[in-house]
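Q: Hi! First time asking for a complex rather than a single chain. Here are the components, and I think there are two in total. Is that enough to go on?
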Amino acid sequence: MRIVNIRPQRGIRILTGAIPIAIALIAYAVVSAARAEANPHDKVLPTFLAMAEAAWRLFSQVDPRTGEVTAYADTVASLWRLSIGVAIATVSTLLLGLALGAVPIFRSTLGPFITILAVIPPIAVLPILFIALGLGEASKIALIAVGIAPFMIRDLVGHVSGLPVEQAIKAQTLGASSWQLILRVYLPQALPRLIESLRLSMGPAWVFLISAEAIASDVGLGYRIFLVRRYLAMDMILPYVAWISLLAILTDAALQWVSRKAFPWAHGEAK
Amino acid sequence: MTALLSFRDVWVEYGDKVVLERVTLDVEQGSFVSVVGPSGAGKSTFLRLILGQEGPSHGQILMDGTPLTPECGPDRGVVFQRYSVFPHLTALQNVVFALECEQSPLLGKLFGRARRDAIAKATEMLGAVGLEHNLQVYPAQMSGGMQQRLAIAQALIKHPRVLLLDEPFGALDPGIRLDMHGLVTRLWREHGLTIVMVTHDIKEAFKLGTRVLTFDKRRIDPHAPNRYGATAVYDIAVKRKDGDVAAVLAE
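A: Yes, that's all I need. Here is the structure of the assembled complex.
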């Protein structure tokens, strides 16, 4: 049988999926144990035990200097920046994506401008944001919004303008005005696509958040890992990276769940 | 009989390409016009002209004596071969859509009593096309034939002056096609519809139509195939006896 035709069952899929993860974890455990044996003060590859100790300090102990649990304060600060930035990008995507996607004259007016914005590397405008908005929260939020919005807008415009022309015609023969056409035909079909492009944009959003925090901040997940890097504190960096990954996975799962619940027709499922 | 639609020396040109030329004909109220012809002979263009999806390059199209604007309106219903229904709405919502557009300009949604009335009307219309047991189903879960039934119900709820069918049964298998012939004939009789149907199937054209228009090019310049456009080269009246109609319905 050709290998392209072999379709593993669910149990086998879970098993095969777990193998590389297990290999990576075991390899790390073996190598870090060997290094710890050679040098108990090794910082580069901390053992899982050392990481657990550091994580326990970060995630449950109140830092006497700030009076807060470090990881908790960092997470709240970062998620706040991330969610505001992403919310601004999402709302502006929905408004512009619908307007440009549905109305050709808006598309011909603003389309080229947005295309130009989309090719500017967002990190390159970070200094401009720092100068214009200061080093506070506004510039970090702006970087996230500016970083992901152009891609999302272009994606949504493409999707809405690419809906079959038959739908628009049918709606008009049923008496729909431009407004009703946008509200009842384009908006509902834009929403699942918007969630999809949001899921794809969450990766870049985290990159922009961590970059902004690394450069100018006094609290936040990105700030913390770049701060402790100076002391080679891998035992703190690795748990933080794992924590960020976990947050990203949970966000993605939540978005997917919302889309499946709210738009069953878009996922080819019964309601 | 009065002329519902009049074409007066209508031409459609895209740049150098002439698609339709010198189309002059009347469509009477209550007629069932089948349009046949080879691919690229302007059948769909003819339908789009009536629909208002595009306007003629020269000439005039009159509906009830007034010129058509090149924009789709609620007096003309349409069923396409595909994409005729909204994938994000259930069967019932697809049909209620037209009533909501009419009665709720701002929100496009109805509430309370108006909503119940609209649902009752839509349910009745869905019953007329045989979808009374599939009100809450999304189009993606329906067969091709059911989707076309839904598209017809959706168009008929507006009581259009003309119902335009663009190869509506082209993608259906033969058994379902026969069912649909019966359904369209019944609705045409019961609602006193005027129907213009584009089809590839000449048998279907003669079976359903009271009149068959054949579009083709009268002249062909082999060095410039786009120089001349197509027009209605044959215009055949079909006597549809009551016996024939009964036979179609009985199928």
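A: The helical segments of chain B are 43-51, 91-103, 112-128, 144-156, 174-191, 202-208, 242-250. Let me know if you'd like any chain examined more closely.
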